[in-house]
Amino acid sequence: MNITPVMYTDISGYVPEWVGDLVAGVVVTVIVVALVVAAVSTGGAAGIVMMSVAGGMGYGALNEASIAIENGTSIAAGIYGGALKGGTQGLAVGLGVITGAGLISSGWGIIALGASLAVNYGAGYGKYGIDCYYNGYDYNPDNANTMGMKQMVSSAFAFGTGFLLGSSGFYSTPGQKLGLESQIGYKAAEYLFKGIYYLTIDYVIQMM
Questions:
Q1: What angle do CA 140, 144, 146 make, to 5 degrees?
Q2: Which residue from 67, 140, 148, 176 has the highest number of Cβ atoms inside 10 Å of its Cβ?
Q3: How far apart are CA 60 and CA 76, in angstroms?
Q4: Contact 100/165 with Cβ under 8 angstroms?
Q5: Are 12 and 57 contacting, i.e. CB atoms less than 8 angstroms apart?
Q6: CA–CA separation, 51 and 175 (whole Å)
Q7: Is 165:96 a contact under the CB 8 Å cutoff?
């Protein structure tokens, strides 16, 4: 009699994989919604950063989950790892925005850059661990360090992208009412800057 479950994610092997995927999706969704609500109610520089983190988490989770589906790997790992990576990259963008916009001093901006680099290194390290745990890969500290370094370098460009958005004025504060033209203009500038200075470079870095 075969009692070894197939495609189950828990150690005991009695919880179907789709349950873990669903739980991961719900957990990340709750966190993203909570951050958006907090960002709108708080406003100001803190609101900008929280909204950027929320957007990064949502995008990262969806993107990595779609990659996991395509590759046949753990969707839960994609959701958790993508949210971790995207959220910390969003943190870098948000801190860059408030630095470029002059909402914090240049001294605090330097500290913010250093903090985002450190946090993103840890996130890259952590994402590798999540992938290994959920997919049953052998953990290699050297590979974990490489992933951490890649994300740290990528976050520097994410911070720079945010700085450009902030210094050029193409950003909005959560809860701020804007006309349709302004909303379109701000979003167009955001996607342009991210597409040129961050997403493209991040893709190249990850392929190295």
A1: 115
A2: 148
A3: 13
A4: yes
A5: no
A6: 11
A7: yes
Q: Token pair for residue 95?
A: 């801190």
Report the C-alpha gap between 100 and 109 in whole angstroms: 8
Which residues are within 8 A (CB) of 62 and not within 5 positions of it... i.e. 6 or more apart? 82
In single-letter form, the type of residue at position 92 comes to A
* Residuewise pLDDT in 10s, the chain (208 residues): 344 444 444 545 566 888 999 999 999 999 999 999 999 999 899 999 999 999 999 999 999 999 999 999 999 999 999 999 999 999 999 999 999 999 999 999 999 999 999 999 999 999 999 999 999 999 999 999 999 999 999 999 899 988 988 888 867 777 666 555 555 555 565 566 566 555 666 666 666 6
Separation between Cα atoms, residue 106 and residue 65, nearest integer Å:
37
